[in-house]
Design brief:
The chain has about 100 residues and is α+β, with helices and mostly antiparallel strands. Helices cover about 15% and strands about 45% of the residues. One of its GO terms (molecular function) is structural constituent of chitin-based larval cuticle.
């Protein structure tokens, strides 16, 4: 339960950090042929230091066990401390699995 609360708080902070207002610009963007029917990949970097990368593979398509195996990361800079935080994660049929130096085990 602590992990879910910590992650929810982290996502809220990361989301608010990524939306700094009209001065935030996309510095870099990576898009693949994401059709919505199979694997996907994308990433971006913002001028405020926030980044996001994610890729996924469709597993067992067309079966009752169809799901994505997802791997990615996001980072943001805390405006109060100017410290960058990064979360690496995987997600699969067994759930969401975040890892970061600042996330309690």
């Amino acid at each position: 339960m602590k992990m879910i609360i910590a992650f929810a708080a982290l996502v809220a902070v990361a989301t608010s950090a990524a939306i700094d207002g009209p001065n935030v610009q996309v510095v870099a963007e990576e898009l693949a042929d994401n059709t919505g029917f199979s694997d996907y990949k994308y990433g971006y970097q913002l001028s405020n230091g926030a980044t996001k990368q994610e890729s996924a593979q469709l597993v067992n398509p067309g079966t009752d066990d169809q799901h994505y195996n997802v791997a990615g990361s996001f980072s943001y800079v805390d405006p109060a401390t100017n410290v960058q935080y990064t979360v690496r994660y995987t997600a699969d049929k067994d759930g969401f699995h975040p890892v970061g130096d600042h996330i309690p085990a």
